[in-house]
Amino acid sequence: MEKVSEFFLSKVLNQNVYDELEDNIGRLFDIYVTTEQGYPRVIGYKIKKGREIFNYEFRNIDICKEDKGLVLRVRGVKDIIPRKFSYLLSKHLLNKQIVDVNGKKVVKVNDLTMNKIGGEIRVVAVESGIIAATRKYKLDGIIRFLYDILGKKPRENSITWESVQSLEMVADSLKLTEPYGKLTKLHPADLADILEGLDTEARNKIFESLDKDLAADTLEALQPEIQADILSTINNLRAQEILDEMPNDEIADILDEMKEVDAEKILLNFNKEDEEEIRNLMEYPDEVVGSIMNKDFISFNVNITASETIEILRELKPEDEVIHYIYIVDEDEKLQGFISLRNLVLSAPVQKLKDIMDDKVIKIKDCQDIEDAIEVALKYDLISLPVVDLDEKLCGIVIMNDIIEELLSPRWKRKLKKII
Q1: How far apart are CA 161 and CA 173, in angstroms?
Q2: What is the CATH number of the domain that holds 201?
């Protein structure tokens, strides 16, 4: 009889359990664990004997390798009442979805690696793949043999528990000390990739747990149809809280993908000014500059001074991407010129913007094709490009980063088809 310290959960489930008197007390039905101290620690066992199921803990347990396979030999059998903060490995984890935080992907739990360390049994890794999935049916040997014949290796995936984030929040049973905490440390783009691999229920559970800033950044990185699905199914107040952190041009793109009735519900929650701006953006055809322009730009009147402009900028604390160039307009909001932030800082404080601006401003109209904006920005090596309407009024800016993101997005693939 050989004692083993490391084993798979699938290899011990439904195996016989013997006490110190060699009496068979039943078969292992499931295992209670707690995650209070990192790696899930075994704190109890469900044992099935006939049609009855008992909850036990053991003073000592050995996993033994015998001719007929693994058996469990225990001492000090004691009835227990399951603790509220425990959960069951087979019921609550096997065949459920988890996230491999390091691999940044969703995987299905096909099996678990367990280890006896210092008298305690803990879950140390999650197993997924065809070998793990067939192990409980005792078909893993046949699968390996078939792969050998084909000259291939079966895909196996072992993920240490520290790299795992459970997605299954089971009411009153599975209570993680920091729900989805590992996911919140991921980059929004990686988190978006993970969310896209989940069903609506699991996706929304995670999304609603994010703080509004991370939720907004993640929403921007998602596929258009996923964006629409999330906003259509989560709480309206939560949706509004997240959208308030996003620029109106991005909101317009998302609402364009939603059913009209759902989009209208969301629009009605905005203040009148933002609602009107978003509606105007949604009216632009997909292939024109107006559909991707950023409305969060900064402009100043020609008659204010350099020092006044700098003071206003300090108060506004604008995003880096919108202060590469400062645009200057007249009383009618018509574009008159621009000045770089560097030149503004180097100017005499009392000088008016009209005296220090460059009036040879390169611009594009909101009704022109996006391709035109790309050509102009590349030709003149511009980081951002002012957008004017037919009356020469400044109505937005196009940022090169936004154009690149748009070209790489699934939404643009549909736009290209329309343009071509």
Answers
A1: 19
A2: 1.25.60.10
Q: How sure is the predictor about 53, in pLDDT bands with cuts at 50, 70 and 90?
A: very high
Measured N-to-C along each axis, helices 212-221 and 236-243 cross at an angle, to the nearest 10 degrees, of: 80
According to DSSP, residue 296 is labeled -
Please report which residue ranges of 257-392 form alpha helices under DSSP H. 260-267, 272-283, 306-316, 341-346, 353-356, 370-379
Token digits for 271? 């203040």
Q: How far apart are CA 372 and CA 384, in angstroms?
A: 14
Tell me: the pLDDT tens digits for 326-352? 999 999 999 999 999 899 999 999 999
Total domains present in the chain? 3
pLDDT given for residue 115 in this prediction = 95
Whether 130 and 139 have beta carbons less than 8 Å apart is answered as no
Residue 173 confidence (pLDDT): 35
Same domain, 261 and 311: no
3-state secondary structure of 72: strand
Token readout for 254 is 């998302």
Q: What is the pLDDT of residues 222-279, one digit of tens each?
A: 988 899 899 988 888 888 999 999 988 889 988 988 889 889 989 988 999 999 999 9
Under 8 Å between Cβ of 261 and 234: no
Stronger pLDDT, 76 or 158, i.e. the higher one: 76
Rounded (10°) CA dihedral 142, 146, 148, 150? -170
Is 397 a domain residue?
Answer: yes
Residue 127 tokens read as: 């197993």
